[in-house]
Amino acid sequence: MAKNKGDLILRDRMEFDLDASGDRTTVYGRIDLSAYVSVANKRGLAVKNIFFHVREQNSTRLPNTGLWDWAVADEVADATGHVAGLKLVATSRAYENMADIGIASPDVLCVKEYLSITSPTVDPANGTSYAYAENFYGPMDLHPEGYTLVSDLLIGVAADKWLANVDSTLEVDVMLIAEEVSVTQERMNDMLQQAQDL
Q: Which of 138, 181, 175, 180 is nearest to 1 (CA)?
């Protein structure tokens, strides 16, 4: 059910592949919002919230649930340990490299980061420890004044050394809660000018 009368709940599912090293250079999926936004008609979407859900559809570890396993290096820990990361963003601007995106980046609506650390050990069966962190900065954190989309929404992803999923495909479900709004010509001109300046 919508959070408020008039709210839209839009959902999409995207896939991304990891290579033999568990890496994924920056790649984007696009959520088509052309049914809701129009520069010519001065229509936009006021974004209220965005949620991500990473899934492992063909999981060998958890095949009955499709849950994504954060323990990225429990079977390959060595004397150096292991650090891995996965980052998801929602943005109206395509950045070339996910490493350039932070909470101060223009036109970024939300950032979600996963970090997995396996401690150094020469014997993975004894004494290995794990640490996991998840950071999420949503639209209300990054744009407390509100953010109005007048274009499609891009969902970006990148990964470093996510060894549990080498040579495999992960899925990310996206849910967007927004409200259709009218945009004044002055505000529309401001948004278009900002897009050209940056």
A: 175
**Runs of H (alpha helix) within 49-164:** 139-142
Alpha-carbon dihedral sign for residues 97, 103, 108, 111: positive
Sheet holding 130-137, edge to edge: 24-31, 153-160, 82-91, 108-118, 130-137
Q: Which of 160, 161, 169 is nearest to 76 (CA)?
A: 161
Please indicate, yes or no, whether the overall pTM of this predicted structure exceeds 0.90.
no
Tens digits of per-residue pLDDT, 81-116?
788 999 999 999 999 999 999 999 999 999 999 998
With residues binned 3-state (H G I as helix, E B as strand, rest as coil), the percentages for the chain, rounded to 5, are 10, 45, 45
Q: Which of 7, 9, 46 is nearest to 182 (CA)?
A: 46
Q: Which residues contact 47 (CB under 8 A, 6 or more apart)?
A: 109, 139, 143, 146, 147, 148, 149, 176, 177, 178
Q: How many CB atoms lie within 10 A of CB 50?
A: 23
